[in-house]
Amino acid sequence: MRSCSLAEHADTVADICKALKAAAGAPVHVDKGGVHHVVPIPGDKRHRSGRVDISALSRVVRIDAEARTCVAEPGVTFAELVAETLPLGLMPAVVPELEGITVGGAVAGCSLESLSYIYGGFHDTCVEYEVISGTGEVITLSREERPDLFEMVHGSYGTLGIVSLVTFRLIPALPFVRMEYRHCGTFAEFEAALRAATTATAAGADPGVMPVFVDAIVFGPDHLVLCLGHMVDSAPYVSDYRRDGIYYRSVAERAQDYLGTTDYLFRYDTECHWLSRTVPPLEWRPVRRLLGRWFLGSTNLIRWSRRLDRILGMRRRPDVVCDVFVPGARFAEFFDWYEAVFDFWPLWVVPYRMPQPYRWIDPDHATGLASGLAIDCAVYGKRNNRRDVDYSALLESETHRLGGIKTLIGRNHYSREDFWRIYNRDAYDAAKSELDPDAAFDDLYDKFVNDHPAT
Question: What ranges in 205-260 are assigned the alpha helix state H?
């Protein structure tokens, strides 16, 4: 893990500022380096403008074990970060499940995980951002200093400025996680268990109480598994899902398990949730032992999928890879629709609680999501090759109808009017005028919505 002083960090930032000023307001593409967790889109025009390289911003500046805070540059991956904090008995409160996700990416895209029913997204644990504006100025934002702009940075996907430094909170951690799997035969049973778990363990927000991880894998309408993780000091055994074992398959079969804390945090990484099953030999033990180091793991799988798209020619439509957040009060309604229309499993389910309505969501639209528990439903790999049905568009439409919101990492179909009924146009334009007045970075709608999607 690379580290640096604040002075070294400032030198790197100065070079980036010079590059932006040299561009003189012309559109730029920010090159972060590494693997991008964005679904390739046919006809995508992103990345075609001038390039500003920020890949050097990939160092930890400071970990304060006593204050339980960390200061890191945006390119630090969570795998690197956890390797530094766990020996100190600490971890970020929200650790995205794929090792290659970076601190900056988690802020820009609002990453979540199995403590999000307590803490919200990773961005909700952040206390300060250093941001480079489109004009090459360095601005410090916090909940006390320009909170209006601070609250607009997360969820902006890099369209307002370059996050160059992040200060965030850490929580206590233990070496192992004991997993408890509650298998439910009906949605009603599952929903009741999920709500009971998130209510009973909400005390995990208390610094004196070790929080319980809560997520779920739905294997079908009659097999829904609530996954509860309890941090513990010792374990009678530790399962390994890095090579031979397959985590999501073990959940379908077991009632209990033990993992090292690092392996728990990145339990979905080896298969990139269940992307490996699209190439069946990758789930055969001999193949995994022989070729796993080159093909398994989210970084490898994403890289290979992109290479194959270039070699074979991108499919007419990419598979549906998307997270949608629906108000908890309408979760049952969404699930009934999903079973009838999508019928694609496994489905990853993560309870989520907004500490307050997010400023970047239209106030009326945010009401249902922020009024109680929200539910993230993650669809990973639904084939979308029927000529008469575009499942991506159907999922977007139903999520909107239920008062939910979707991530923008895949295909998006909104008209400009519908988009700005969900996102807060006034707040976004105000932030854009201050942080990027010359439009060096893309507009949020123009960056993510293809006006002529593949049909």
Answer: 247-253
